[in-house]
Records
---
Amino acid sequence: MQYNRLGTTGLWVSKLCLGTANFGLGDSRGFHDWGVIDQKAAFEIMDYAMEHGINFFDTANVYGGLDTRGLSEEIIGKWFKTGGLRREKTVLATKVGRIFEQDQTDGPNNCEGLSIYKIRRHLEASLKRLQTDKVELYNMHKHDPGTSWDEIWEGFEGVVRSGKVDYIGASNHDAWEIVKAQSVAKSRGFMGIVSEQHLYTPLNRLAEHEMLPMALDQGIGITIFSPLFRGILGIDMRNPDKHQRTAEAEFHFQYLQKQLSEFTDLCVEIGESPANVTLAWELRHPAVNSIIIAPNSVEDLEELFRSLEITLDESVLRRMDEIFPLLEELNPYVPRTINRR
């Protein structure tokens, strides 16, 4: 395994981060692949990841399935309790800010947002499910335009000072939102945001315009979610139906077959799988610290380690630019539903 510092912090995280949105067997309505892995398989994946050097695990309080949100955190908590220093070896990230339907006690506050009330209340609930007393990274699941940054930072400063959180991260934010947040944090004498979890793939390169340059300038670490674009960039077009696709992935696949065929041809030429070439392409960017992968099996996870050994030469990068050009707007063949999560 290879490691990077998370932004400009002193915290080292594995370049491959284990995503757990697919843990839980909760009802996903067949549209996406959240909550499709049972506890036994999840334990096997986490054990294999840890044994092979992955120290960075990502989850969220809403993962586990549409009607069983929180189940992913519960599975991780049960895994920690099996011992073997599993908790001590894990840099754990979870999230706050989305609607948590199961919490009926929130009343009118059961809504998206980052109030002090929600930050503190939902952290306590996450810690209980995770069976731990702290998390290393607490991410804002999305920007809250209706709450002032002073209130947001008051909430996050409190949980950091209490020792229940080490670092604060962001997800699904725009570059200007992070710069504004950092300005307010600095005025309060607080570290602020150390990392941004963002969508950046060959099919969606919008981050190259503002987010990635800002991250390098401001010392913000970038972690990538859905690096294979819901699995689409892992498809070998010589056998496109080898793996079952969700309804969402199938919807996008129908728009992208020409590009995916050209990409498969390139990967065949260099003797690597589309999934590993995609991850290697993403990891090449100096702003990217880690990529969140969500394998459905140990075999899937094992295959992705190869991406860390691949160096793409200039000729391959030029071909990638031709197949997946940098555009001013989202790739016109990609419907916008996947741009945020």
---
Amino acid sequence: MKEGQNDSAGILVIGSSNTDMVVKSNRIPLPGETILGGNFFMNPGDKGANQAVAAARLGGKVTFIARVGSDIFGEQAIAHFKQEGIDTFGVIVDPHHASGVALITVDEFGENCIVVASGANGFLLPEDILQHKNKIAEAGIILLQLEISIETVNEVVAIARTNQKKVILNPAPACSLPKEIFTDLFLLTPNRLEAEMLTGIKIESLSDCENAAQIFKAKGVCNSIITLGENGAYVNSKTFAGHIPSIKVQVADTTAAGDVFTAAVAVALAEDQSMETAVRFATKAAAISVSRQGAQASAPYRKEMGGDER
């Protein structure tokens, strides 16, 4: 076990892995516009991998199921996951499709614009999941996003339901979801825009958040967290409902802040912490993340959280 990891129930992350190619600029270009940027750098990224790395750094015992290409990006990704203490048994090397990449522009305020070429991520199929259904049965918490096919997500949720496992879905990027998936989720963690798409409610206030959360509950999701960026998060759960404010920091880059937040919630819940404690822990982790550059590079380690934040 890597130093800093705990002996709580394991977290199984199933999702995407990309290499982020990032350009810093004063602003994000308009459609059809060319501007001169500043520094260029490459980082490992994408939502599944971001959440796996963040959860491992925060002390979770993490297994990752993903699909990468048989190329330099795939090789570097697997080596990186192993270095972070992640079990990579479920990372499939695809000989026919390139590893995913993301092109990211970050402006002077830390806001970003992202275009993704999914590559091998798009070929993580239900049959791949069936080969690892024992991992789902063994996991304490299963963490999903929507950068893999919805058929694959459905397969994971179905196996989790059979084994009575807790599934956290971070519904990003936003898309319509089959109604039957909601009843099998333990927790849904949309941001404001994703919550608007899934509920049809324009979210401009905490009252709107509460109304959206009630729609999620009516769909069958007992626990939901709507993340609000610099305005914190709105939580609706069996044990706590209400607003938790953000921690104010100097923002350098918001890339992967939502991934760090969701991963931190998963770690705290895997340690049997309350929902309120989990969200406060996640709020602090996300604040550290946005104060520095990069996706996975920005994820904090448990020792950086200060004190016993569990």
---
Amino acid sequence: MKIIKLLVTGASSQVGSALCTRAVNAGMTVVGFDDNLLNSMQLESIQAVISSSKPDYVVNTASYSVVDLAQENPQKTHVSNHDVALVLAQACDELGLPLLHLSSDYVFDGLQRVPYKEDAYTAPVNRFGEAKLAAEKAIKQHCAKHIILRVGWIFSAYGNNFVLRTLRQLQEHHHVKAVSDQQGCPTYANDVARVLIAIIQQLGCDINVWGTYHYSGAEVTSWKGFAEAILAAAKKHGVTQAKTIEAVTSLEWPANAPRPAYSVLDCSKILSTFGIRQRPWRSGLVKVIDQVFKPVK
């Protein structure tokens, strides 16, 4: 049986690092892409690296995803999200390789009040969302064999994410605030890695399922609801000064970039196509907080 080989961009990102670990545990071979080379945007050089690595799949988890910083740096945001995706799509298509790419729930405007399906109208409200949508369009135009996986509210025990920022606030302050009028679904990075592995394993069956899919953790919440779950899990470790989470509105919260008020993803397509079910984000949250306060020796 042939061993599947992945070439992963953004291998040190939240999803990228989780993917590399899970892929190896699943018996796959993983090569991390040199992101400095990737950022050079030299199509021939990137294509040469991909060709010499001889992967079965290229997985792009690289992203400039700090939303407020992205708003301040539109050019860097566009280059890091759209331009990278474009060059990878062109290279993969030339080599006949499938490209799996992570996108975002922030491609939507948040005006709906029912979960967004894959073919819903896209109208980003911030620069990050605009860049991710532009990346999607580039991939669809330039790479026939592609899987675009939209995810949202990613968290893990590493990197820059809402869980780790909130934990720091809970440890340092008696009063912690969180936005109560934005809804979405937190998503454990390790679950996204699981989903990518499951998709890759089925793509090997030569089924024509290319296209766009949604995945998020199960259960809709607000940032305040998410913060309350973080507080409850952190209390068990005795590391919090704050006892409650104070609700604030989006208008009251200091942010450079607007966020969609509602970015819940409909995940029925990925279930019907690949049999992939959503997992509760709360179980992933407990694992992350245990990992933060009980580091593996």
